[in-house]
Write a structure and sequence with these properties.
Blueprint lengths: L33 E6 L4 H13 L16 H11 L3 E7 L4 E7 L5 E10 L1 H6 L16 E5 L14 H11 L17 E8 L4 E13 L4 H9 L11 H7 L14 E3 L13 E8 L3 E10 L7 E4 L6 H20 L11 H6 L4
Parallel strand pairs: 1-2, 5-6
Antiparallel strand pairs: 2-3, 3-4, 4-10, 6-7, 7-9, 7-10, 8-9, 10-11
Length: 354
């Protein structure tokens, strides 16, 4: 006679992943979220640039967002609503140049930038002797700093151009606002710097990591406290030589008053409250040089509020026609290449509203 196993299986409580908040508990504002995707066929370097932009927009973006080449903008817009997505960053390529569009959902406006130059994050990393990327670097969104977009306009204009107001508003709203009175210093890990050059009308797009070093503490002592590595004392006569022999500071020593701050709370093992620390910025990429081409009132459509080419929209039409032709060719030739147009399981949990 068959025997039945009546033993009960032990209950294992599932581990619930921490979901990202949709509203800032301090300011009460809605936290902006983004989709980064492409329209048309992209070469390998631009596909890597798209991945770098996704990493930059962390944690309030869909890292595992995948699209089919026959997806339309309406498909992304239908998915964006349930997930609370507020912005689209769209990369495209024409025979002449790559373009980046920053669109606010669901009704615009849309800013179209021509990418004059760009460098990938991996290129920035390989150019540095000591690249820096802590494990929690992308745990919090970056702080956006705008230069050259201030009120009052440029040197030659008494009034700020309206397109500069739109650019500053678009990039400022990409990330959550912070309250200087309540922000945690440990959450300030990255900076996105945008500088507008009035003479060339170009925008420098730079991404930096922030680190603090105590002023007046030797480099050897600082590394020993932070990394907990046993120092090499073979060539020293005494432990005191390890402390006294080391120089102070680094190549970009921040003893200047403009580069030093007094911390309000402890940060790490070395930087203590009420002590001076030097601010160090290290570029982590990506890096871009942008030129504003067009501003549309709607979501990638509508009335043209600004055009770099004035009333002659022939170049703008050529840019849109080339992009549409690429989309049509890809629908015929490459329908079976890409994978599902869905948000991955991790993004499904992270982007879900609480």
């Amino acid at each position: 006679m068959a025997r039945f196993n009546n033993k009960r299986k032990p209950f294992v409580k599932p581990i619930a992943k921490k979901k990202l908040a949709t509203v800032d508990h301090i300011t009460g504002d809605k936290i902006p979220k983004s989709f980064v995707f492409s329209r048309g066929r992209l070469p390998g370097p631009l596909r890597q640039l798209k991945a770098d932009l996704k990493q930059l927009m962390n944690p309030h973006t869909a890292l595992n967002l995948k699209e089919k080449r026959r997806n339309t903008l309406k498909d992304f817009l239908n998915v964006a609503g349930p997930y609370g997505v507020t912005h689209f960053l769209i990369l495209s390529k024409t025979p002449t140049a790559p373009y980046l569009r920053v669109a606010t959902t669901p009704q615009g406006p849309t800013l179209t930038f021509k990418i004059e130059e760009y460098s990938l994050a991996v290129d920035i990393k390989h150019s540095q002797k000591h690249p820096r990327c802590p494990k929690d670097l992308f745990k919090n969104p970056p702080m956006s700093i705008l230069s050259g977009f201030g009120s009052g306009g440029g040197r030659h204009n008494d009034k700020e151009p309206p397109q500069l107001k739109l650019i500053s508003a678009a990039f400022r709203n990409l990330f959550p606002s912070i309250d200087v009175n309540t922000v945690k210093l440990s959450s300030c890990q990255r900076i996105l710097l945008l500088h507008y050059n009035e003479d060339t009308k170009l925008i420098d797009f730079r991404h930096y990591s922030i680190r603090l070093e105590p002023v007046g503490v030797s480099r050897r002592i600082s590394k020993f406290v932070q990394k907990h590595q046993v120092p090499d004392l073979r060539n020293l006569q005494d432990v005191s030589d390890f402390v006294t022999k080391a120089g102070y500071g680094s190549e970009s020593e921040g003893d200047e008053e403009a580069a030093t701050v007094t911390l309000a709370s402890d940060l790490g093992r070395v930087n203590r409250a009420s002590s001076k620390s030097a601010i160090k910025l290290q570029e982590i990429g990506p890096r871009m040089t942008l030129r504003l081409i067009k501003v549309e009132n709607g979501l990638c459509q509508g009335a043209v509020l600004f055009s770099e080419y004035g009333d002659g929209n022939k170049k703008e039409d050529n840019h849109e026609d080339a992009e549409n032709e690429e989309d049509g060719d890809e629908e015929e030739d490459d329908e079976n290449d890409e994978v599902d147009s869905e948000v991955g399981e991790e993004d499904d949990e992270d982007m879900e509203e609480n």
